Amino acid sequence: MDRPKLSILMVIYLPRRPFVLENTLPTFFGLYPALHRILATERVGVLHAHQAFSTMAHEAVMAARCAGCATVFTDHSLFGFADLGSIALNKAMKHSLADVSAAICVSHTSKENTVLRACLPPSLVSVIPNAVDAALYTPDLGQRQPGRITVVALSRMVYRKGIDLLAGILPRFLARHPKVDFIIGGDGPKLPGLRRAVSEAGLGPRVEFLGHVKPEAVRSVLVRGHLFLNCSLTEAFCMAIVEAAAAGLLVVSTRVGGVPEVLPSDILLLAEPSCDGILEALETALVTLPTIDPWRQHQAVREMYSWRSVTQRTEDVYYRAVQH
């Protein structure tokens, strides 16, 4: 049977001011009038909400189910079960996703986590990775500094991104390898401490801090590097390592969450989330680096994470949700 034609996807902005980490103040049903009006006026058939800690997403799911719309929820993060914040969030998820039509997670590790936290039937949850437009991250070997090896780290400067580990490995690794430099991009509360660690070790000339890097400038930073380092303590997927691989960099990342699922072993070297583990992986990366073909990596990523494939798989979920 032929599928019905999908309607146009619309984007409507609700004027709500975020109060912390880009999240709006939880109002439980405060957004319901506006959401209900949008659902009715636009004749919405499927509502797709994203992210477990988005208060608007949870309210939208409940409003859509009250309006008789099919609902799809995508979770991008991993959360625990013991700390107070996770317990509260997990309770909210059980309530708002109790009648969701379908769910999407970005990795199998993420699916397992979401199924347990929200008490969802596993059959209701699909695993669909994030997509990347590889054409935006073509390698440019001419940007690399001759005679030097550059390690790039682009991340939000927060605890869960392993910035303390990065501060711990920088002095030791650079002391061993005088021909290695670092480029570090990103902003956040952990940045001053990282800068201080570099300054106290006298590494200022070999570590370039870029601060906040705009999305359109990411490729120009990546192509300057040979290696990409991700020190995260938790990740459901990690788009940064996919973008880096597409730009031709050999990737070193901590073995956490869904990261081992993202890239093959000839592109991604995994490390235990400790200073010694990361240092060992970086040493292996330096030995492996001469065998890396940046353009072969780029083509591999282009085929693995194309928007066409991800869009088709997401569309399949929408049709199943409508039939739910």
UniProtKB/TrEMBL annotation:
Name of a matching Pfam family: Glyco_trans_1_4
Domain of life: Eukaryota
Matching InterPro entries: PIGA_GPI_anchor_biosynthesis
Cellular component GO terms held in the UniProt record: glycosylphosphatidylinositol-N-acetylglucosaminyltransferase (GPI-GnT) complex
GO BP: any one term: GPI anchor biosynthetic process
Keywords from the UniProt entry: Glycosyltransferase, Transferase
Molecular functions per Gene Ontology: phosphatidylinositol N-acetylglucosaminyltransferase activity
Residue span(s) of domain PIGA GPI anchor biosynthesis: 9-83
Protein name listed in UniProt: Phosphatidylinositol N-acetylglucosaminyltransferase subunit A
Gene source species: Auxenochlorella protothecoides
